[in-house]
Task: inverse folding
């Protein structure tokens, strides 16, 4: 009964005591505990009262030991009669009121003072100090660690943070591109622990390929490798976690030469199919104009016409267009004609009074076109019969001077051009060749030798019409044609300038008004008369 009276009396005093003393400043002073394991920051707590007092008060902590419910942190003595609870670290005796049974329960989460020291005698091994709310989250156990940034206050060892780890795949592993063009590289990151700060990219040889951006902090992590010069370089992706590179992978970037392309000047382009010229990204003004159709001396380009398939003038990340703004004239339309302008058509148009100079050898010296023959109606007419002689070859250069005008008609054979063909007097000189197929629908091709080229002047001039193909020849020097080219089976562009493709078209076709103006009148459907008139 006596124990019950004490218990009941203590309950009676608990509420007013709590109300009176709950606002007082009770702090936990932390000091090392000798029983802490080596290397661990565990501390025991003793309670001090910052209120003015004449005697040093006792401070009691509950140990959770059933045989010793309260522990005197100052003197190392205990008294079971002074503390009600025996649970692990759930009660503390109010300083100065121990003899009155003043034990107050604390929660597992308690506030901190302004110095960041926990305001509790609850023992714990770890706690988290929240600078925003000024609170410590604690785990009650035998010993405690410090929470918060208090000056000179020992700090408990936080649980170890796992070392950031990852794996990464940089794809594609082998990435081909060309000079001036870019290829996208993507880093696929798998995180073991931690978070990714960024993925940094670096090219081993920036003279071959550069990367942009050099760092990407947003998933999906990627960069673009742009070709600078032919060759192969390695691009490395470094995954940065916690300020350090945690994993990396590499990709091989192979930079190839820009591919061949072609260009015209002031000329109409007509195709029954595609019109494609892959102008590389390295073609840029002022050295190179990335357009299919350049403006002529009159300030305008020609018109490009294709038939419902593809019109494309860009290679890789290039910016090629059909023509300079605002003259981007590109027509998607079918083309048809009521007449077939083949060799038979031209033969029918020649008047009876025209006398042909018959070529009787498969190989004809180009210099022989410069003079001789039988002029008629202002032209010298040449004829070659492939049915009896086979294919024909023009060997050597043709160099027409003055008002020399030549028309060559080749029947049933292929024509091989192995030298340059030039007209020295624009508006007076003229050269035209028409090549027809044989009776079986074969042959009829004009084939330019790969060696035919000139560094500064046209390679061949005149009008060239083939019932078969017009082939430019698989050479590494530019073929420059001044005049007009037509081929019913297609124009085959075979030149490849390799490194010079970067800023030079492999084939260059230039419209020549003077050659069109000297077109033989006998070949026109209507007998046109060219005459200058007043505007």
Result:
């Amino acid at each position: 009964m006596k124990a019950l009276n004490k218990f009941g009396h203590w309950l009676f005093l608990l509420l007013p005591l709590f109300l009176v003393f709950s606002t007082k400043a009770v702090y936990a002073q932390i000091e090392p505990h000798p029983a802490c394991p080596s290397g661990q920051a565990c501390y025991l707590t003793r309670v001090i009262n910052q209120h003015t007092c004449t005697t040093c008060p006792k401070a009691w902590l509950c140990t959770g030991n059933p045989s010793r419910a309260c522990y005197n942190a100052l003197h190392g003595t205990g008294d079971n009669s002074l503390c009600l609870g025996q649970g692990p670290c759930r009660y503390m005796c109010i300083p100065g009121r121990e003899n009155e049974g003043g034990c107050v329960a604390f929660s597992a989460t308690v506030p901190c003072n302004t110095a960041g020291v926990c305001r509790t005698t609850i023992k714990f091994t770890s706690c988290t100090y929240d600078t925003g709310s000024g609170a410590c989250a604690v785990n009650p156990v035998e010993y405690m660690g410090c929470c918060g940034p208090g000056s000179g206050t020992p700090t408990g060892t936080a649980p170890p943070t796992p070392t950031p780890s990852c794996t990464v795949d940089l794809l594609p592993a082998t990435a081909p591109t060309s000079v001036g063009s870019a290829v996208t590289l993507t880093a696929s990151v798998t995180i073991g622990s931690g978070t990714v700060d960024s993925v940094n990219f670096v090219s081993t040889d920036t003279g071959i390929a550069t990367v942009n951006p050099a760092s990407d902090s947003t998933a999906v992590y990627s960069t673009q490798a742009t070709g600078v010069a032919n060759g192969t370089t390695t691009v490395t992706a470094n995954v940065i976690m916690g300020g350090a590179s945690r994993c990396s992978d590499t990709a091989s970037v192979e930079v190839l030469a820009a591919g061949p392309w072609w260009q015209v000047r002031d000329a109409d382009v007509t195709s029954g199919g595609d019109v494609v010229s892959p102008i590389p990204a390295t073609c840029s003004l002022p050295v190179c104009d990335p357009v299919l159709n350049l403006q002529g001396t009159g300030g305008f380009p020609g018109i490009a016409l294709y038939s419902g398939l593809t019109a494309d003038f860009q290679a890789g990340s290039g910016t090629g267009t059909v023509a300079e703004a605002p003259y981007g004239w590109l027509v998607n339309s079918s083309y048809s004609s009521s007449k077939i302008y083949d060799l038979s058509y031209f033969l029918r148009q020649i008047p009876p009074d025209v006398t042909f100079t018959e070529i009787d050898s498969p190989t004809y010296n180009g210099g022989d076109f410069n003079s001789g023959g039988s002029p008629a109606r202002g032209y010298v007419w040449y004829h070659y019969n492939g049915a009896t002689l086979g294919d024909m070859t023009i060997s050597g250069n043709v160099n027409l001077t003055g008002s020399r005008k030549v028309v060559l008609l080749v029947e049933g054979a292929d024509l091989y051009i192995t030298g340059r063909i030039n007209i020295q007097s624009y508006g007076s000189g003229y050269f035209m060749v028409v090549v027809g197929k044989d009776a079986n629908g074969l042959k009829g091709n004009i084939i330019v030798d790969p060696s035919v080229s000139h560094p500064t002047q046209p390679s061949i001039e005149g009008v060239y019409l083939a019932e078969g193909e017009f082939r430019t020849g698989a050479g590494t020097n530019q073929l420059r044609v001044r005049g007009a080219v037509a081929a019913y089976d297609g124009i085959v562009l075979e030149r490849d300038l390799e490194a010079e493709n970067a800023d030079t078209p492999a084939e260059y076709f230039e419209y020549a008004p003077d050659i069109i103006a000297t077109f033989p009148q006998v070949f026109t459907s209507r007998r046109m008369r060219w005459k200058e008139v007043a505007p």
Notes: The longest helix spans residues 2-21. The radius of gyration is 48 Å. The longest strand covers residues 244-256.
